[in-house]
TrEMBL record:
This is Methyltransferase domain protein. The keyword Methyltransferase applies. Gene3D superfamilies: Vaccinia Virus protein VP39 (3.40.50.150), Winged helix-like DNA-binding domain superfamily/Winged helix DNA-binding domain (1.10.10.10). CDD domains: AdoMet_MTases. The lineage of its organism: Eukaryota, Metazoa, Ecdysozoa, Nematoda, Chromadorea. The keyword Membrane does not apply.
Amino acid sequence: MAEKSDFQKRLMQIGIDGVLSASIAVGNRLQLFHALAKVGSEDKPATPAQVAEESGCKERYVKEWLSVMATGDLITVTEDEKFFIKKENIAERLEQGGMMCLDVGCGKGFHAVLLAQNFPKSNFTGIDVTLEAVHLANQQRKDNGETFDNLAFIQMDGAKMDPDWTEKFDLVTIFDACHDQMRPDLCLKEIYRVLKPGDALGLGAMWGQERALKMLKDAGFSNARIVATPFYEGSTLYVSTKD
């Protein structure tokens, strides 16, 4: 059989990625990732039946979905066909607790909720310029039955944060929101202000890299670096610390 051309390989990969993306969307909508994380772990992987029972979905379809996720290296499958979500390296400081973390442009609160859930000993604040987003974030917590003492959502402009927040936070994240700001340059300068010296910013943005790195440098982040995001190639992740 003739070897496939680069173009054919590219088309095939697009098709594979399309199926994987659609499956991720389905899993998110049906809370399958949440169900798997709840009933399965690296020490005690879950069967498709356990995930199906937790999610309220049919086992036959859940098994197919789990297989797709495992094929895409998003979850791990054992030799006896049990599944779990592998925990990534978790920052020691977050586990020990006491960290103050801020998510700018939090939207419905997806990232802030996820972090608060996984690091209950640290504190998280999500801010968004629209009151509607803050209401949605709080409503999502209510709908999911999730309540956290270490999480709050506040309506606030990322380009004009609370004056009392100077050097308050150990970690600031802003995912897919900075490039939508009216003045992203002011937002980055405010983030620099509210960060403690030596602590970190994680920025995910659909920007040209040259422009993003320049804005970060102008805001005071002189050591910004790009981190690969193989499962989200449409966005670039920048990590930097405050000098």
